[in-house]
Write a structure and sequence with these properties.
This protein is of the alpha+beta class. It is built from 14 helices and 16 strands. It folds into 2 domains: about 180 residues, no CATH class; about 230 residues, no CATH class. Strands 3, 4, 5, 10, 14 and 15 form a 6-stranded mixed beta sheet that branches. Strand 11 and strand 12 form a beta hairpin.
């Protein structure tokens, strides 16, 4: 085995086996490790013995710079949800490919091995962290993710260390799929009793003040397919939209079924980061209500030009409705059948910001938690609005004591959840008028 591969093997063995033992120093978080690697690469570039080696090392450092962009990291230990989070592994692999082409005679071998080990350890840490986040989820996916980590360990000690990053990335994506399944199930199948306890505690304790609801009259009903329509217009980047999605997913799941629902989070550059869902690409079916979600912009900044990547588009009718009911164009915007309008979040994102996806989903079953109460209160407000639009159907949902209690208070809620400028996320130079499809 080459000396460089032997050094990587020894270092990874220590990281994977020795660190968890009692008394061992805690490992650096993945982002910290990658950032600490960059000065070492700069030193290696300066010590390179050929121009070609120097160029390869410099290019590897550029790839690490791309992997450590702040918008890709929720915190030092966790990257954003797929597909954007996967780019961290892609850039890490690209850096390793560059370093593989640096011959041992053109740069200090020990320095190259140390850098490769650090990059691989960061990727391995992300994969292992993903498995921990998804604990209790799909056992098959988690077993495959663990196997991918072992496969990555084997590749890490060969002359193709970049394939180690590929395997760690695959492990992370499998773990994230397991996490998504776990969170979606816990959120969409919460019982009326558990939801009612948390929502009742929110009003009883007085810690949660749902935002005021605007009641509409005299407007033509908003319908689709002969059913009342719920229109949602939001931004993936907006933390107020993120907290509102929790309430919408819980409420709408009582009337129908979501599919292809994915996890997401608000922009990491605007704390507090709220882990949530995205409605982009999702589908919803219900015999009682229609759901029309429009996610206008993504949650990761464009590489050039400012703003965020455009996603969905408003129809001319949706654009006209938005202008008529909310001239300030606030996100999130929720119109329930033209009977109720919520411009801004129902509850404050500060009540759920910083918490993990799994913890937020599980909090719905813990009525004493602030996050559980906040999500439940938002869900009951939206459920009460939908029940008014459906004429009280289904009775199994609309007849619950908590829904009836919230329905009686709709005109009296006076909290302020807050919101984002709906079209402030578009790139500079783009038209200020809403997009249409």
């Amino acid at each position: 085995m080459p000396l460089r591969a032997r050094a990587v093997l020894g270092a990874l063995f220590c990281l994977a086996v020795m660190a968890p033992r009692a008394g061992a120093a805690p490992a650096s978080p993945p982002l910290t490790r990658l950032l600490q690697t960059r000065p070492g690469l700069a030193s290696l570039a300066g010590a390179a013995r050929s121009l070609s080696a120097r160029k390869l090392i410099v290019q590897a450092n550029v790839e690490l710079a791309r992997a450590t962009v702040a918008s890709l990291w929720i915190d030092p230990g966790h990257v954003v949800a797929p597909a954007y989070g996967a780019s961290v592994f892609a850039h890490s692999r690209a850096a390793l490919v560059d370093l593989e082409h640096v011959s041992a005679s053109a740069a200090p071998a020990g320095g190259l091995a140390a850098v490769e080990t650090s990059i691989l350890a960061a990727n391995r840490g992300l994969a292992a962290g993903g498995i921990r986040q998804a604990a209790g989820g799909n056992g098959g996916l988690l077993a495959r993710a663990s196997g991918m980590i072992l496969s990555g360990d084997r590749w890490a000690v060969t002359s193709r260390v970049d394939l180690g990053a590929v395997q760690y990335g695959a492990a992370w994506e499998d773990a994230f799929r397991a996490l998504t399944d776990l969170v979606v199930v816990r959120t969409t199948f919460v019982s009326s009793a558990a939801l009612g306890r948390a929502a009742g505690a929110a009003l009883r304790d007085g810690a949660i003040a749902p935002a005021g609801v605007r009641l509409l009259s005299g407007r033509r009903p908003l319908e689709r397919g002969g059913k009342p329509e719920v229109l949602f217009v939001g931004l993936e980047s907006c933390r107020f939209c993120a907290v509102e999605r929790w309430g919408l997913v819980v409420a709408l799941s009582r009337f129908g079924t979501f599919s292809n629902l994915h996890l997401s989070q608000s922009a990491t550059t605007s704390p507090p980061v709220v882990r949530s869902f995205t409605f982009a690409g999702s589908r919803y079916a219900s015999p009682y209500v229609s759901f029309a979600p429009v996610e206008l912009f993504s949650n990761v900044p464009r590489p050039r030009g400012g703003g965020y990547q455009p996603l969905g588009r408003l129809t001319p009718a949706e654009r006209a409705l938005l202008r008529a009911l909310d001239r300030r164009a606030t996100s999130p915007f929720v119109d329930v059948a033209n009977r109720f309008v919520d411009a801004g979040a129902t509850v404050s994102p500060g009540l759920v910001g910083g918490s993990a996806w799994g913890a937020l989903a599980f909090s719905l079953y813990l009525s004493q938690t602030a996050s559980g109460q906040a999500i439940a209160a938002s869900a009951e407000v939206l459920t009460a609005e939908i029940c008014r639009a459906t004429g009280g159907a289904p009775a199994s949902v609309c007849g619950s004591p908590a829904v009836e209690d919230y329905a009686s208070r709709l005109a009296r809620f006076g909290g302020r959840g807050g919101g984002c400028p709906l079209f402030g996320a578009q790139r500079r130079g783009a038209p200020r008028r809403p997009l249409t499809r």
